[in-house]
Amino acid sequence: MRLRSTVIILAPLLLAACASAYVEPQGPDTATVTIQNAGPMRLAIFAYKVAEDCSGGRPKIANTPALDPGQSVSFKVKGNDAFSFFAGFAQSTLIKETNCFMPVTFTPRSGEKYIARFTVSGGMCYPAIVSTTPAGERKEAFRLRQLQTTMTEAGAACK
What we know:
There is one protein chain. The protein is mainly beta. The protein has one domain (about 20-145): Immunoglobulin-like, CATH 2.60.40. The protein has one helix at about 1-15, and strands spanning about 30-35, 45, 65, 70-80, 85-90, 95-105, 115-120, 125-135, 135-140, 145. The strands form two sheets. Strands 4-1-7-8-9 form a five-stranded mixed β-sheet, with no helix packed on it. Strands 3-2-5-6-10 form a five-stranded antiparallel β-sheet, with no helix packed on it. A hairpin with a 2-residue loop joins strand 8 and strand 9.
């Protein structure tokens, strides 16, 4: 009985630790996305398999669950299709608590490169997505989604 109770308690924790890896698409119809942590604390990141409602699982991007301040990670996404991913900061001190949970959706164009920057200033979170060209950076439209709690990793995680 004791072993069974232990297995029941540990099984969900072990499954969560075995998150799948994001699989980059191959071929010419791709775009490159770089996520940059421009903030002062660790940034958790992952992709959503289904962009429309942030469902279908939460694969780790480039096998990286989080970025330290100043770090970035680049990966390929399918071009001309909506892509949703999560970025989040969380920090608690005796004086204040800062939590930023930012599910983001945007549609990258095939053949282009993008930078998704995340920072915190004055307790507020600031996401930004830009496309990069030899001429410089251009702001891109994105949708900051509302995070919702799901009972499983496969459920809809944003509105």
